[in-house]
Write a structure and sequence with these properties.
about 200 residues, alpha+beta, eight-stranded antiparallel beta sheet, about 30% strand, globular
């Protein structure tokens, strides 16, 4: 009788544990499928077609209202909150000003001003300054970038460089591999190949 109870209890315990193992496996597979769905959902957003209530011009005006300087960078990407933010950098002879502006609300997310290093005073402004009236439009640069690499653009920026301003686009790979970074000369519209 004792043996029957022990065997019966052992059998019941084994069936119960096996059932728990199946539930855990199902939970893991549903978690990984929802994770892959959200990852693929993120890559379907394309900044070449998505429009925001706040444009990069609006964000730049916000920055220029707060700091007197020349544009050295404008960027649009997802911030820590998961929302898209413009990152604007302005340079004076002595300082660099950076501001993050929410692309939906226009609210200032973050801002800071810092003094330039001694070797950057006056020279940084001259080398990194972007004359926005002399560069090709963002739309034209996006079109050129998509001719180099097709796919949704998930981040873009225009930045002043020693050799002149350039656009940079992060384009999702359609094959599921890493993003592609495409750089476009902001004056000529030519693709800048990796050296």
């Amino acid at each position: 009788m004792r043996r029957t109870l022990v065997v019966g209890a052992s059998l019941a315990l084994a069936v119960g544990l096996a059932g728990c193992g199946d539930d855990d496996t199902d939970h893991k597979s549903s978690s990984s499928s929802s994770a892959s769905t959200s990852a693929s959902g993120a890559s379907s957003e394309d900044l070449s077609t998505k429009k925001f209530p706040v444009t990069w011009n609006d964000a730049l005006k916000t920055a220029q209202d707060k700091f007197d300087g020349d544009v050295s960078k404008i960027e649009l990407e997802k911030g820590a909150s998961g929302k898209y933010e413009y990152k604007i950098e302005l340079l004076s002879d002595q300082q660099k000003y950076a501001i993050q502006v929410d692309a939906d609300s226009g609210d200032t997310v973050n801002e800071k001003t810092e003094d330039l290093d001694k070797d950057e005073v006056q020279s940084e402004r001259k080398s990194d300054k972007i004359d926005m009236s002399s560069v090709i439009s963002l739309d034209e640069a996006m079109t050129k970038a998509k001719q180099v690499q097709d796919g949704p653009i998930n981040k873009w920026k225009i930045e002043g460089k020693d050799r002149g301003p350039q656009y940079e686009f992060d384009i999702d790979s359609t094959s599921g591999s890493e993003d592609h970074e495409v750089q476009i000369d902001a004056h000529s519209g030519d693709h800048i190949k990796d050296s």
